[in-house]
Amino acid sequence: MKFNDPHRKAIYSEPAPIKRSHENPFEAMVERFDIAARILELDEGFYEYLVTPARVHITAIPVVMDSGKIKMFEGYRVIHSDILGPSKGGIRYAPDVNLDEVKALASWMTWKCAIVDVPFGGAKGGVICNPREMSGRELERLTRRYAANLADVFGPDKDIPAPDMNTNEQIMAWILDTYSMSVKRTEPAVVTGKPISLGGSQGRREATGRGVMTVTLAAMERLNMQVAGSTVAVQGFGNVGSVAADLLTQQGCKVVAVSDVSGGYYNENGLDIQAMIAYSAENGNSLEGYPDAQPITNDELLALEVDVLAPCAKEDQITSQNAHTVKAKIISEGANGPTSPGGDRILAEKGTLVIPDILANAGGVTVSYFEWVQDRQGYFWTKDRVERRLDRMMRKAFDDVYDRAQQHDVTMRIGAYVLAIKKVADALKLRGIYA
Ligand code: NAD
Q1: Taking the model in full, what pTM does it have?
Q2: What pLDDT shows up at residue 17?
Q3: Contacts (Cβ under 8 Å, ≥6 apart) of 172
Q4: Atom 3 of ligand 1, nearest CA residue
């Protein structure tokens, strides 16, 4: 869809229409972008520039499977923007990854980095594959060939990958090694989220969940809510959800429900999050069969009467279909894209404070930035230093977004987009258009 389309004009000049855009994550991003662009009275040319990914790479990845047969995979790397600096973003392995999803995630990275004031642009990668059905050797060959195909795209001054869904520090180590072989020197700063022994940062694993905790506490403060004893439900018990649940418990909140793919777990007196983390680790990253809780469905978890709901699993969990059932006062979006534009409108009418994903889960990219800085300095920080700096940056980002939302009388999500788009547009104006 082009800016000059009559349909686009309608979005741009009137309240956003109710449509099923959540089925296409890029359209969902553009819908929010449009509202923010209208508030900023963004020049049409700038609008087109900032909504369009700078580069889209599609690469065929041949892999010799353990059976000896060759299987072809498709991989993507989308650079949405490098206006503020080298592009930054994770790589996702999943059977249903598609280009629109990767484009949406890449642009979210641009806005996220701008919000936390990190000098990076936005990118994202994806490979269509089912890692659960692949052996470790097959995953290594897939990763190395994907990295080799994109060796000219990646680089510490160009584009810096990180883990995302179904990728981890081992996969980052293989990318580091493959890239280093290609440039004939060891280059730790080409990826973040790597093992500490290869130049990873203290505190990176917990960074996203920690950021969710920081912004949640900041929101409670703004709403004059008491932290001690406040009730929390967390959807998703992986890297982000389990850490957020654990840290919020340490702050005195009562986490009454969590869920993972196996279902939801509820205890009105508060769950023992440490015990659940240990149980999940021993049980193949699953809470299936966890004894000290009442089983509930995912829908029931989202509709619980709690103070805070933290969706930390996947996209499109709160939509026009179920947003009216949500009773939480604060939604803290650990996941990327958990609320659709239709869901947003219902929550805004109800007066729910939604801390948007591009702010709430920006702790991950913030510590990735710290990791990149440490790699380039060759000097590594203590965990305490990482955490203090992360808390400071997340707190400031929360205040900036909250104030911006108040200033324009819009939701925090639109406030976040306004803040981010303005920063990138101002930088673009200074740089000008190369011709
Ligand atoms: P993860 O794979 O470690 O955990 C995902 C969790 O969600 C698992 O517990 C899984 O069982 C659960 N889950 C999946 N489908 C579910 C469903 N339908 N209902 C309930 N639970 C379900 O992933 P992660 O790294 O924790 O990432 C979670 C989300 O946070 C993703 O949207 C990701 O893009 C986003 N995110 C992650 C980071 C990071 O640093 N890891 C940073 C920013 C954003």
Answers
A1: 0.93
A2: 34
A3: 161, 162, 163, 191, 192, 193, 194, 195
A4: 238
Question: What is the pLDDT, as a whole number, of residue 353?
Answer: 98
CATH number at residue 110: 3.40.50.10860
Measured CA distances, 212 to 36, 78, 234, 334 (Å): 23, 26, 11, 6
- Decide if 124 is catalytic: yes
In a domain, 123, yes or no: yes
Among 208, 287, 316, the mutation site with the greatest number of ligand 1 atoms within 8 A of its Cβ is 208
Q: Which of 345, 360, 375 is the last residue of a domain?
A: 360
Residue-wise pLDDT for 169-201, tens only, equals 999 999 999 999 999 999 999 999 999 999 999
Say how many domains are in the chain.
2
Average pLDDT over residues 65-78: 98
Please name the residue that has the structure tokens 């469905």.
297
CA of 80 to the centre of ligand 1 (A): 23
pLDDT tens for 237-271 read: 999 999 999 999 999 999 999 999 999 999 999 99
Among 201, 215, 261, which residue has the most ligand 1 atoms within 8 Å of its CB, making it the best to mutate?
Answer: 261
Q: Which of these three, 161, 179, 198, is where a domain ends?
A: 198
157 & 296 share domain: no
